[in-house]
């Protein structure tokens, strides 16, 4: 067998997009698709948003990249805006979510090293977590499908059950640095942390001198109807990784931290060739312009409520197939009673609706944050039409 020019690590489907507009993608064959996947929660403003595309084009014609050997007025300005609108005092810009998680892990370890406690290097993480595909990020999950064939993995992680506060606290020992957790697990099946769980982790960190590290790569940046998902819980982290929606489709991520948590991150401890370059910063500024507009997050919350209502009203008509709705805002999951991947493929190939499968036979519904009620109605109609004719495989 001859290997393909693109390394064959993705089981790619037959949809081949060449153009996007708002909530729609268009394939090279002219087919139009309702995009409720958003590049897996990346295209926060949909496709070809005029403010974002103009900002990128203007910056590309001005200055794209100079390296971090020089001062960064663009990076300083975007970092200040993030600091002004979050818990954080400082920001490191990356190219991806996995890199943002790596920076968060390093920041947590370096904090204890700076405090004279280098033995406190272990982060407690949680089952079905997904933190990225680097060796560090796959070491932070206990999912065999991410880890098999890549051993030996990095030491310094312990694993507890998600939403099991007592189990997590039982793992704290003299080597513990803190907790690394997604407030809402995306890949894991739109599993939402309970208030008691997340608030309990925060309390434990305060009591034991540990760091609460949140991975908001998928659930952050407006997707829940709040700027960051932890706002729903009335707590703040010490360190947080974000990405996906932060660039709206341009590769961008960030690690945010308090001054105390970042005390060990001094000159020479971390770096990135492309991270925070002027072109990425222009994209980040444009996204922030829109997300921070008065009423934008209220719109996300309202559309999330409307979408949830539509899904819940639809379920009884197809209760042989659909079980329940999970999540919040425009990060919703529809749990199936059969294989979610098969139904996602059926809806895509026969009804031109793009969704994303996840763990526990859940369909992720992750539309652009700028959708309106007409898009929701179209999505519900496509889901209902697909469900009426879909026949699960016999072994589901």
Structural features, described:
By secondary structure, the protein is of the alpha/beta class. The chain is built from twelve helices and 17 strands. Strands 4-12-11-10-7-5-6 form a seven-stranded mixed β-sheet, sandwiched between helices. A four-stranded mixed β-sheet has the order 1-2-3-15. The protein has a four-stranded antiparallel β-sheet with strand order 13-14-17-16, covered by helices on one side. A hairpin with a 2-residue loop joins β1 (17-21) and β2. The longest helix is centred in the C-terminal third of the chain and has 19 residues, at 296-314. 48% of the residues are buried. The mean pLDDT is 97.
Condensed summary:
The protein is α/β, with parallel strands linked by helices and 396 residues long. It has helices at residues 38-41, 50-60, 73-84, 97-114, 135-139, 144-147, 165-170, 195-208, 278-291, 296-314, 340-351, 373-389; strands at residues 17-21, 24-27, 32-35, 90-94, 122-126, 157-160, 176-181, 184-185, 191-192, 211-215, 239-242, 253-257, 322-328, 331-336, 353-354, 356-358, 362-365.
Write the layout of secondary structure elements.
Blueprint: E1 17-21, E2 24-27, E3 32-35, H1 38-41, H2 50-60, H3 73-84, E4 90-94, H4 97-114, E5 122-126, H5 135-139, H6 144-147, E6 157-160, H7 165-170, E7 176-181, E8 184-185, E9 191-192, H8 195-208, E10 211-215, E11 239-242, E12 253-257, H9 278-291, H10 296-314, E13 322-328, E14 331-336, H11 340-351, E15 353-354, E16 356-358, E17 362-365, H12 373-389
Parallel strand pairs: 3-15, 5-6, 5-7, 7-10, 10-11
Antiparallel strand pairs: 1-2, 2-3, 4-12, 8-9, 11-12, 13-14, 14-17, 16-17
Helix pairs in contact: 2-9, 3-9, 10-12, 11-12
């Amino acid at each position: 067998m001859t290997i393909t020019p693109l390394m064959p690590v993705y089981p790619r489907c037959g949809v081949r997009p060449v153009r996007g507009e708002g909530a729609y993608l268009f394939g090279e064959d002219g087919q139009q698709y309702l995009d409720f996947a958003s590049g897996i929660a990346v295209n926060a403003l949909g496709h070809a948003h005029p403010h974002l595309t103009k900002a990128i084009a203007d910056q590309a014609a001005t200055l794209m990249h100079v390296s971090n050997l020089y001062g960064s007025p663009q990076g300083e300005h975007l970092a200040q805006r993030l600091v002004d609108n979050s818990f954080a005092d400082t920001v490191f810009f990356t190219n991806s979510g996995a890199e943002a998680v790596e920076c968060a892990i390093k920041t947590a370890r370096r904090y204890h090293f700076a405090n004279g406690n280098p033995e406190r290097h272990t982060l407690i993480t949680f089952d079905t977590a997904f933190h990225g595909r680097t060796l560090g990020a796959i070491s932070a999950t206990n999912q065999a499908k991410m880890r098999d064939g890549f051993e030996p993995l990095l030491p310094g992680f312990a694993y507890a059950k998600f939403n099991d506060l007592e189990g997590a606290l039982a793992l704290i020992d003299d080597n513990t640095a803190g907790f690394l957790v997604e407030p809402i697990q995306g890949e894991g099946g739109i599993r939402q942390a309970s208030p008691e769980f997340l608030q309990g982790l925060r309390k434990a960190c305060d009591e034991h001198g540990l760091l609460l590290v949140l991975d908001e790569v998928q659930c952050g940046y407006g997707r829940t109807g709040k700027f960051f998902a932890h706002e729903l819980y009335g707590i703040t982290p010490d360190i947080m990784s974000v990405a996906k929606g932060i660039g709206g489709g341009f590769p961008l991520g960030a690690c945010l931290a308090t001054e105390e948590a970042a005390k060990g991150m001094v000159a020479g401890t971390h770096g990135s060739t492309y991270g925070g370059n002027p072109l990425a910063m222009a994209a980040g500024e444009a996204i922030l312009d829109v997300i921070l507009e008065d009423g934008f997050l209220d719109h996300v919350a309202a559309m999330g409520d409307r979408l949830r209502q539509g899904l819940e009203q639809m379920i009884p008509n197809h209760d042989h197939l659909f079980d329940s709705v999970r999540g919040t805002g425009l990060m919703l999951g529809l749990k199936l009673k059969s294989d979610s991947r098969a139904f996602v493929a059926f809806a895509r190939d026969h009804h031109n609706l793009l969704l994303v499968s996840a763990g526990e036979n859940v369909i992720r519904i992750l539309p652009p944050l700028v959708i309106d009620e007409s898009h929701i109605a179209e999505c519900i109609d496509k889901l209902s039409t697909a469900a009426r004719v879909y026949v699960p495989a016999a072994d589901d």
